[in-house]
Amino acid sequence: MLTIILLCLLIYISAYFCLKASGQSIDVRPIQSFEDYFSDSNEKIMEKQL
Fold first, then answer.
1. Higher per-residue pLDDT: 22 or 9
2. Are 26 and 19 in contact (CB under 8 A)?
3. What is the pLDDT of residue 30?
4. Which of 21, 23, 36, 49 would you label with 14, given CA atoms 20 to 30 Å apart?
5. Which of 19, 39, 41, 21 shows the shortest CA–CA distance to 30?
6. In whole angstroms, how large is the CA radius of gyration of the chain?
7. Half-sphere exposure of 26 (CA within 13 A, CB side)
8. What gap in Å lies between CA 31 and CA 44, rounded to an integer?
9. Cβ atoms 45, 39 nearer than 8 A
10. What is the DSSP letter of 7?
């Protein structure tokens, strides 16, 4: 059981440092609808159309 907890901590810490090193945001935006899953791709499509 202790090894599973340690493994989870290792994964969490390594993911945190990878996100920080790459400069990506670690903010979590709540999903309100199905279209929120595709918000980034929809924004890019709308920018191309303009």
1. 9
2. yes
3. 72
4. 36
5. 39
6. 17
7. 11
8. 19
9. no
10. H
Q: What are phi and psi of 28, to 5 degrees?
A: -105, 125
pLDDT tens, residue by residue, 11-43: 999 988 888 888 766 676 677 777 666 666 555
| Locus of tokens 């901590």 | 9
Local confidence band at 8 (pLDDT 50, 70, 90 cut-offs): very high
- Is the pTM above the cut of 0.70? no
The residues near 36 (Cβ < 8 Å, ≥ 6 apart) are 29
User: What are the tokens at 8?
Assistant: 């989870």
